[in-house]
Structure formats: structure tokens, C-alpha cells
Design goal:
- This protein has about 290 residues and is mainly β.
- The strands form 3 sheets. The chain has a 17-stranded mixed β-sheet that branches.
- It is elongated, with a radius of gyration of 21 Å.
Length: about 290
């Protein structure tokens, strides 16, 4: 079994047991994923987004009971913390070495001398205190301190709302010389190595898993369940550990795989799943010569 496959199963097992032990309530009410401004793993500046960023400035509640670890930002002078990129934020510690981080709060409603915070306690109100402008809502993050990774909050949140349908209508192939080919069915390409990308359509949802098969054999599966620090940068897991600059070479392109096309008929199949397991599939026939 290849090493990247082993890593995929190890991460899946870890997250399975974590989710069996703990299930978080939502930190604020949402009617659907349209109220999430930016999803985990999307491009944020030139790095991966590590949070769920909500679009509405509403009351924020603790998703689970926990120990108060820190209050950060301009409203926490009594604790001596300096301003951070999270803006006003509250950090709670939970079982299984998990931290929940509630950032970009306009106001904080937590007693700085408290040690224990009950589940569904009001922590403050979402606002616009973080370094980003234009996001007037909560930045919610889950961190596994033991394994030094950031977890997609949707894995642990209960009752995930229906997501927007993910679009995979436009695929491009890029050879080692940097030539770009727009894929369509029954096209012919030189038999060489290509990196494949999907064009990111606006407001069409964020993938949880992207996988590519050539002639029925899977050659890549990239998961957006956790961000792991490698070479001092955050990465997602697939055949390799990919940094944001590799997954998103441009803001509207998402990396899918690098593979060599053999001479003859090649069936290229892309499958994209959302967090609820809903799958979208696109298949092309490519003739290589």
C-alpha cells in the first residue's frame, strides 16, 4: 500500500474516533451554507483558510463545554494580551486535546476570571475586529494540539446544512512547458505529463474531497478534512502534502492531480464530494499520441 494511502486512512481513523467522542453544536445559528462566507481549505490571501467564516454578525456561543484558555484582542486588557490577527477572540480547551477558537468578535461577553465555560454559553457577538476587512462575522476554528493540525469544523459540527452544488464544468491540463489546454470530450493531446486543474466557479460550494481516476484507476485523492504543518507551512493531504501555492496557483484554479497520459485512449474521471457525501462526477475521453 502506497504511503499516501496509508496517511489518508490514518487521518480518517483519527477523525472518525474524534467525531465519535465529541460533536459540537454550531457556534451561531445558520439557515444554510450560504451564511458561511468562506469555507475551510479555501484560498484566503495566499494561504489556506483555517476557519469557517460566517457572514452574519450574530451572538456567538460555545460549541461545547471547556476550559477558558485565553481572551485575545483589544477588549482583553485585563488579561494583558496583545492584539492579534484574530481580532477579539476567545479560546476554549476541550477533551481529546482540542481547542475551539472564536475570532473576529466585535464584543466579548466572557468573565476574564472564569475557568470553566458551559456549553452554549454566549461568548460575544461576531464583528469585524480581525485583520481581514469585509468579513463581519465569526471566524470559527478547531485545533488538535496533540497532532499539530487544524481540523475542518464541519467534521465535528452536528446537523450540517445542505451545501451548494459544486461545479466542475471547466478542467484544464498544463504540461511541463506551461502550455494550458482546455479539456473537452474526445480531444487529442501529446502523450506526456500534465497537471490538471478545475476552474473555481463563484458561489458553487467548496469540495471536501477531490479524486481523479485514469482508466478506472484512482491516481489522486486530496482531502480537505485537516491542515497539517509540513516544512513550516500548512498543507492538505493527498498523494503528497500540498501547500496552498500548489493547490491554488491562481485564485480561480484548484489543483487536482499530476499524471502522465499513455499513448492511446485515456478516460479521465473527476469526482468531487461535499461534506455531506454528495458527489459530482465529470468524465472526459482523451486520446494521447
Amino acid at each position: 500500500m502506497k504511503s499516501y494511502t496509508k496517511i489518508f486512512f490514518v487521518c480518517a481513523i483519527i477523525l472518525f474516533f474524534v467525531s465519535m467522542v465529541i460533536a459540537f453544536d454550531w457556534p451561531q445559528s445558520v439557515a444554510g451554507t450560504s451564511e458561511i462566507n468562506k469555507s475551510f481549505g479555501e484560498l484566503q490571501g495566499d494561504i489556506f483558510n483555517t476557519s469557517l467564516i460566517f457572514s452574519k454578525a450574530e451572538d456567538v456561543q460555545s460549541t461545547e463545554a471547556g476550559q477558558l484558555m485565553a481572551i485575545l484582542g483589544q477588549n482583553s486588557r485585563e488579561m494583558g494580551w496583545a492584539p492579534t490577527t484574530l481580532g477579539n477572540a476567545v479560546i476554549l480547551a476541550h477533551e481529546n486535546n482540542l481547542l475551539t477558537v472564536y475570532g473576529n468578535l466585535q464584543d466579548i461577553d466572557v468573565d476574564a476570571n472564569a475557568s470553566f465555560i458551559a456549553k452554549n454559553s454566549v461568548l460575544g457577538t461576531g464583528g469585524n475586529s480581525a485583520w481581514q476587512q469585509g468579513y463581519a462575522g465569526l471566524h470559527f476554528q478547531v485545533v488538535d494540539t496533540e497532532k499539530d493540525m487544524i481540523i475542518n469544523p464541519l467534521i465535528l459540527l452536528s446537523q450540517i446544512p445542505e451545501e451548494k452544488k459544486i461545479s466542475i464544468t471547466h478542467i484544464t491540463a498544463v504540461n511541463k512547458q506551461g502550455e494550458i489546454f482546455d479539456l473537452y470530450n474526445n480531444m487529442t493531446l501529446p502523450a506526456t505529463t500534465y497537471s490538471f486543474y478545475r476552474t473555481i466557479e463563484q458561489n458553487t460550494g467548496s469540495p471536501y474531497i477531490t479524486s481523479v481516476a485514469i482508466n478506472g484507476a484512482e491516481v489522486e485523492a486530496i482531502t480537505y478534512d485537516v491542515l497539517v504543518r509540513k516544512r513550516n507551512v500548512l498543507t492538505v493531504d493527498g498523494k503528497n502534502f500540498y501547500a496552498a501555492s500548489e493547490i491554488y496557483p491562481e485564485k480561480d484554479r484548484q489543483f487536482l492531480t499530476t499524471v502522465s497520459l499513455s499513448p492511446g485512449k485515456n478516460t479521465f474521471t473527476l469526482r468531487v464530494k461535499d461534506i455531506n457525501g454528495k458527489e459530482t462526477t465529470l468524465t472526459y475521453t482523451i486520446y494521447a499520441k
